[in-house]
Structures are given as structure tokens and as C-alpha cells.
Design a protein that fits this description.
It is built from 8 helices and 10 strands. The chain is of the alpha/beta class. Helix 3 runs parallel beside helix 5 and helix 4 crosses helix 5. It is globular.
Length: 239
């Protein structure tokens, strides 16, 4: 069943002018419930624009976008904000944690916008931090944590909301290879538990961790294929 469906979608800056830029140029894409999809491309390929539109952070110039059956392209800012709070959680390369708040307060903050009662916010925040193996730092400030720990907090914030979609924008870009692999393993576990994961990356090696790869170039989808999981490749090699 389709969770996300975009059809003939355009995002054009300075349309009709000499410096017109077609960040997305007539793309169509469907993503089913529970998929793990990597959207991959070089800088300027349109992948960030794609994430912003799929994540309801922006609207297309024209074309259609259905999110869980709801048309998105003509929604107001307030409506988009409401849809994001209910449907989508984000994991960013820069973590986007608030230094003045404790770790658990950072995790709980999106739930405040969902009007979740304080006691439930606290419980869900601690449960998510525990799942990420970092509950012992719940009262710490983000600035005293390592990069890997901060990314775990960001992931805890994403999963605590219970959103059906997680969008991860270059989530390993600021991490060492070992910690980056741990973050990818967490995303794969979330996918196995039923969450739809959309991974935005320029790195083919990172994209290989997803179950499906969508490749963008100059605002066009040039490849959309299923990906063989690492485990399957290892089994086939050893047979």
C-alpha cells in the first residue's frame, strides 16, 4: 500500500527567468508503508529538495503529492506543520539539539507540539533513550556528549514521537565510520520493526544499507531499483 505518492512533480526556482533552476523536473515516485528507501545523488542533484517536499518542509511548484492519501501540494504552513508533527520525524547530520535543554527535554520537545501530557512525554523520552543505550545521560546537556551520543539522542527524539516515517538526512556525515555503522544498524532495526525509513545521502556505500535505491541527477530520477541486503550478498558469496 502506498504511503507516499508523487506524480509529475516540479520544484522550480526563478521560473521563467534567465536564472531558472529546476531542482525537481517532473519526477514521479511511490513509497509503500514500511519501506527502507535511500534517495542518493551528488550535490545539486535535487535530493535535498526531494526531502524537503516529502517531509512537508516545502511545497512543489506543481505536480501532486499524496501522503497517506492526503493531498499535500496546496497545504498552508500551519497545515504542513500539523502533518509533520503527526506523520514524520527527522534525523539531521547536524543533530539539531537545543543546548539549553537536557537530553530528555530535547527528546520530549516534539511531543509537546503534539500535546502529549508531560508524564507521558517523560516516560516515552526515557524509553527511547534507553532503546538507544543512552538513558544514563538523560539529565546531561547535549554539549557534553560525543557526536555519536548526540546522534543517538537525535534518533531517540525521532522514535519517541511514534511517527510512521523517519527521514534521515546524511545521518552519518559527521560521525566516524564505526559510529556511523551503528547509526545505520539502528535505522535498519527501526525498518524491521515497521517504520518507513527514507535515507538521504550522497554516499553509495551508505545507500547500500537500504532495501531500495532511488538515484537523482539534475532533478530527474535516473534509477529506481531494489537493493540486495548486505546479509544476502554475504550468504550468496559463501555458498
Amino acid at each position: 500500500m502506498e504511503l507516499i505518492e508523487i506524480r509529475d512533480l516540479y520544484k522550480i526556482y526563478a521560473e521563467g527567468e534567465e536564472n531558472e533552476v529546476r531542482a525537481l523536473d517532473g519526477v514521479s515516485l511511490s513509497i509503500d508503508y514500511g519501506e527502507f528507501v535511500a534517495i542518493v545523488g551528488a550535490s545539486g542533484s535535487g535530493k535535498s529538495t526531494m526531502m524537503n517536499i516529502l517531509g512537508c518542509l516545502d511545497i512543489p511548484t506543481r505536480g501532486s503529492y499524496l501522503l497517506d492519501g492526503t493531498p499535500i501540494e496546496k497545504r498552508t504552513e500551519d497545515e504542513l506543520s500539523d502533518i509533520r508533527s503527526r506523520k514524520i520525524s527527522f534525523i539531521f547530520q547536524g543533530y539539531n539539539l537545543i543546548p539549553s535543554l537536557t537530553v530528555w527535554q530535547n527528546v520530549a520537545l516534539p511531543m509537546a507540539y503534539q500535546r502529549v501530557p508531560l508524564a507521558e512525554r517523560l516516560q516515552r523520552a526515557y524509553d527511547a533513550l534507553d532503546a538507544m543505550g543512552i538513558a544514563s545521560r538523560a539529565e546531561s546537556r547535549p554539549t557534553v556528549l560525543s557526536g555519536g551520543q548526540q546522534q543517538r539522542v537525535a534518533i531517540a527524539r525521532a522514535i519517541a514521537t511514534g511517527s510512521p516515517i523517519i527521514m534521515a538526512d546524511e545521518p552519518t556525515g559527521a560521525l566516524d565510520s564505526k559510529t556511523g555503522q551503528q547509526v545505520l544498524d539502528i535505522l535498519r532495526t527501526l525498518h524491521k520493526n515497521g517504520t518507513t525509513v527514507i535515507l538521504i545521502t550522497h554516499d553509495n556505500g551508505i545507500a547500500a544499507k537500504a532495501k531500495r535505491v532511488v538515484r537523482l541527477q539534475d532533478g530527474h530520477i535516473i534509477e529506481d531499483r531494489p537493493n540486495v541486503p548486505d546479509e544476502s550478498r554475504a550468504i550468496n558469496v559463501n555458498m
